[in-house]
Give the backbone structure.
Amino acid sequence: MKGSLKFPFNNIWFFLFLVFIFRLAYIHLAPLQLVPDEAYYWDWSRHLDIGYYSKPPMVAWLNYISTHIFGINELGVRFFAVLLGTGSVGLVYILAKIIFNEQVAFWSAILSLLTPANCALSLIMTIDPPLIFFGVLSLIFLWKTVSTTDERNRVLYFIFLGLAMGLGILSKQMMLVYFCLVPVFLLQDRELRSLILSKGFFLFVIISILFLSLPMYWNFRHGWVTFQETAHHISSNPSILKGIRTFLEYIGSQLFLMTPVFGTIIYLGLKMGILRFKQMDRPFRFFFIFGGIPLILFLIASLKQRINPNWPAIFYPPAIIFSIAWLFKYSLHGKKIYKWLDICVLTAYLFVCLTYMSPFIFSIGYISGTKIDPTKRAKGWKELAALVDKVYGPMKKREKGLFLLSERRDTISELAFYLPEHPFIYKWDCSKHRIKDQYEIWGGPGTDAIGKNSLIVLKTKTNIGPLRPYFKDIVKLRDIKVSLGRYAFRHYSLYKGEGFRGW
């Protein structure tokens, strides 16, 4: 590719394959235990269903497949994160090449790859890797649908669009935004409006809704808890100063995830998209509708409430392609564009290196586990399980029917993953408010546990008074301390609940 920086591989697919292998090796070598969300979603996979408390079922299904192939370990949980996170970059390349050209496709893929966002996406198995993969795949089929002149092929592409969209809906609720934007894109284009009434569009809607019906039926059976949990994330800032703070926090997180230079280029491109939307041709309007408009709405929303950094993740692939294509067609010419792209690559490379090095940098005793350690949530869980097992192991050999109990989602899921034999752990929550996670839906010990004993793992200083009525007696065994570094610890207390009375 033209530019001062020389790309070391002529074949983008070979390069992505090397990245895939590197990321698999990194998972094995990096001192990163599962973060609580990963362990939580893994625990879902042991109870296969068509829906779960806060998310659709795809992440659990993928975890079930990968852990049955690779075993219950970090690689088993994270394999699909590596595969889909790296694969989504390949889909960005295909999408940009189909609509624009090799040049736009190359830079879109490289700059998508060289972001901390894609690094995290490809190393941590959450709901986002499948969401983004199926999101970009949906855009490919949508463009194929509107660009073909063969009616038979158009119906076929609409069916493929419905399948890709449906798989995305089963990955995360955010995919429903794309589902709603498809008719918006068709209606704003005079030549495409008639497709709304076509057989293919009808099939696309029916197929997508069939996929959506799975988690909807699950919610119908469980009191619509996903809707309650989602509504819990919607709030409003109490003051203008708070709004400015959440806005700046959001901008800062997005500029870090996309890197400052490239992130600035993306948002400047979106600004130009607003000003020149009517003058843009179909390809630019396509990417602006699916990438630019949602990102702009998130910017506005960040003035009203705190936005989690990963919420707009699915909208960045089209926004990236839009910005790169805009640079080549409208903004810069000749050597200037390559100068800016080279700066983007260099700064992005620096941020990516820091991202990959952070687990090693923050393993230094003085800063490990402190407030400035971004890897803190991926530390100490294996050590906690080892300390708990020193008590739990001998107890379960002596006492038939012994069960584990804890009060926090992160503690439960991490212990379930790292303890030998991966026991099921029940959750106790003394609050009477809304259901907070999947463990509360599964419920507590059954009648077969009545009269049995329990090992209870609680954060130190937790008030166990409300728990006492459920047992004949609760005896404190010991306090344990898990080191996260020289000056950082997690503190827990172990109790023995004797004679369970019923939940």
Remarks:
- The mean pLDDT is 92.
- Residues 12-359 form one domain.
